[in-house]
Amino acid sequence: MNIPECPKKFDEFPLGNAPISLLHADYSRELDGVDIALAGVPFDLAVSNRSGTRFGPRYLRSKGFCNILSDPDLNIDIVNNLKVIDYGDFELMPGYLPDCFYKITEQTKAILDAGVTPVIVGGDHSISLAELEAYYLTYGPMAMVHFDSHLDTGMRQTAKKEIFTHGSPFSWALKKGYLDGKHMIQLGIRGGFADGTSAEEFSKEWGREFILAKELHYMSYDEAAQRIKKKVGNRPVFLTFDIDFLDPAYAPGTGTPVVGGFSVHDAVQIMEKALAGLDIKGADLVEVMPYYDPGEVTANSASTILKKIVSIIAYNKLLSRQK
Asked: Fewest C-beta atoms under 10 Å: which of 23, 90, 181, 198?
């Protein structure tokens, strides 16, 4: 009896037997020749409501519904033109936040130093601060496009130490110089303001722009895209997507769901129109929590968003090669 050799690539697997990895990409710890590296950060030490996002990367590997073969909407063949890998999870020190942040920065920087674009799956939103330090060390102050229901610019500090939560990564990133507030835009905001001062005063101080959900709902996709492109310009961009940008109907599995959000279709359309052509140096998708996800609704939504992020970065890379 002849036993067929085990296939090594996603598109060689029989239907229903694809490898358990992010977007069914091939696993690898080698970065030579890689264009995009997906990686998990199983971390939720900085949550303020309910924990469990540390299981987000594992969940999206086991329940992901999308692959990286192609994107018909953008009319690109990814798998035959770019090398996309699942780099695995970052190595962290469980239970100790400062060391975890150091390791996240270190491992993100290693990917960037190899000339590879990181797309990281969290994990709570505080990990973006540690990632941004790596981008800052590589590119200087970053522009940012931020999809979320919360501003994540709260600020807590005692007399003796700084306090980091998933509600404060971007205030710290601004204060540390990792972000250029004049090229920073936040979309879908509806979850209250926790800036220490008013959101308007904080925005005037740093130059950032935010679009409330009640405004964004009445904008066309083209108008939203124009606002984003105008704010970001041609600066190097960090893209961050908190899954609670989506309405809980589409993403119940998250730590701080806020009603009045957006559909997956809304998110995909805005991203396609706004992000194509931008200089995106890296991205993350955060706050997926499996234990509050009946029917695997959030897994499906998050996989779709993750694929679109990868597809847009791939589209931009292929576009730059043609110039």
From this structure: 198
Sorted by sequence, the CB contacts under 8 Å of residue 115 that are 6+ apart come out as none
Specify the amino acid at residue 54: R
Pairing of strands 209-212, 179-189: parallel
User: What are the distances in angstroms from CA 141 to CA 132, 134, 137, 145?
Assistant: 9, 11, 9, 13
CA distance 177 to 62: 37
Q: What is the pLDDT of residues 131-171, one digit of tens each?
A: 999 999 999 999 999 999 998 887 654 445 677 888 788 98
Closest alpha carbon to 105 in 135, 139, 141, 144: 135
CATH fold of 22-322 reads: Arginase; Chain A (3.40.800)
Distance, CA of 9 to CA of 19 (rounded, Å): 9
Evaluate whether 244 touches 150 at the Cβ level (below 8 Å). Answer: yes
Longest dimension (CA), the chain: 74
Q: Please tell me the pTM assigned to this model.
A: 0.91
